[in-house]
Amino acid sequence: MNPDSSQAVGILSGACDSTETSLSYREYSGEEDMRDIMGLIDVSLSEPYSIFTYRYFIHAWPKLTYIASIGEELVGCVICKIDEQKLLRRGYIGMLAVKPAHRKRGIAKKLVKLAMEAIQQHACTEIVLDAEVSNLAAVNLYTSLGFFKDKLLEKYYLNSGDAWRLRYWFPSLDYTKLLYSDI
């Protein structure tokens, strides 16, 4: 990954410990990212996903997948999509993961903010996601960004764990974009 490429979103120097030179964020760039994304999510989330799930999200909405890297190492990612319901658009955060050694450094927060900005640019009125009730770090992250607990989804996950449906409403949206823009 070249941080100087046109797909680079930003670089934060010194954001991690002194042995790491730079943390960069970028959009998904192609199939070469897929294996690293799958490996990260497979070890980070409790729910197993097939290659078809990744391809559904990433190939349909590649500009809604963001990657955090240190050098060539993928350390975090967020994967999103957009649904249309009548005249309204809704963003959905499907997966967010950060390698355990790189947590508590603001990487997940930055990835979610990038996703929120991209989703808003597509004239979505809201963003929804599902987070395990037991994953307090994730629930706290999302609520700190303005998401609220919309409802409890009992035994939602394969491990019988409950989930919170979290929702974020964009505060000021030009609704004419809803009628006249393309995804």
Produce the secondary structure layout:
Blueprint: E1 8-13, E2 22-27, H1 34-44, H2 51-60, E3 65-70, E4 73-85, E5 88-98, H3 107-121, E6 126-132, H4 136-144, E7 148-153, E8 163-169, H5 176-180
Parallel strand pairs: 5-6
Antiparallel strand pairs: 1-2, 2-3, 3-4, 4-5, 6-8, 7-8
Task: Write structural notes for this entry.
Helices cover 27% and strands 34% of the residues. The protein contains 5 helices and 8 strands. The chain is globular. It is an alpha+beta fold and 183 residues long. Strand 4 and strand 5 form a beta hairpin. It has an 8-stranded mixed beta sheet with strand order 1-2-3-4-5-6-8-7, with helices on both faces.
Quick structural overview:
This protein is an alpha+beta fold.
